[in-house]
Amino acid sequence: MFRPEWQEDMFYYLISSMMVQILGFITLAPSNFVNAQVPLDDFRAYIVALPFFVQVVIIMAATDFVQYWVHRSFHMVPFLWRFHAIHHSTKKMDWLAGARMHLAEIAVLRSLTALPMFTLGFKPEAIQGYLLIVYFYSSFIHANIGWKFGFIERFLVTPRFHHWHHGSDREAIDINYASHFPIYDWLFGTHHLPETEWPENYGVVGDNVPRGYLKQFIHPFVKDKPKAPAE
Questions:
Q1: pLDDT-derived band at 230, boundaries 50, 70, 90
Q2: How far apart are alpha carbons 218 and 101 in whole angstroms?
Q3: Count helices and strands in the chain by DSSP H and E runs
Q4: Among 38, 177, 187, 231, which residue has the least CB neighbours within 10 Å?
Q5: pTM of the full predicted structure?
């Protein structure tokens, strides 16, 4: 029987229940495979004995290393870029901008970056501490905070550092992939942070990403329509 308001409840079921379960399964699948195949008991015993703060820092460093290369792949591989372009399509940076991500990218990014966190033997409270930090840190680095953080910018990703990653200016293309520690961009040649400047423009070069959630969801799977020549 199609009772009143069944459509709303069906939407909540699909998004809040089924999709969350599927995303959780996909996210944990690589870690579950590693845990079943790779003998790491001795190493895990060493990790779990470390102080809470040290474990959180190691999780941040390990996940950021994996995230750097996954993130860079989404920029370098054309098919993957079509998914990641959704995240870059916002033309105004604020704390909400970090939430604009394609569901497929979320699944890939979380499943791979979670590998060290769920396989190396960290305590649950250290994992929870990291998740709390990264939840707020993601909003922070996307925020429209026009401050310079001095020497801190050498060691931690700040809004200015990440804003350059989202810039569409020529010097802002394919730089600053790290989410926590800029040292990875230093090591792998993708670091860019001028003394005082901020990017002038944001968004995707060519502005070929449509507006609206559904159109953006199918965007990676369809070819771009050629633009009409200017008169």
A1: very low
A2: 13
A3: 10, 0
A4: 231
A5: 0.85
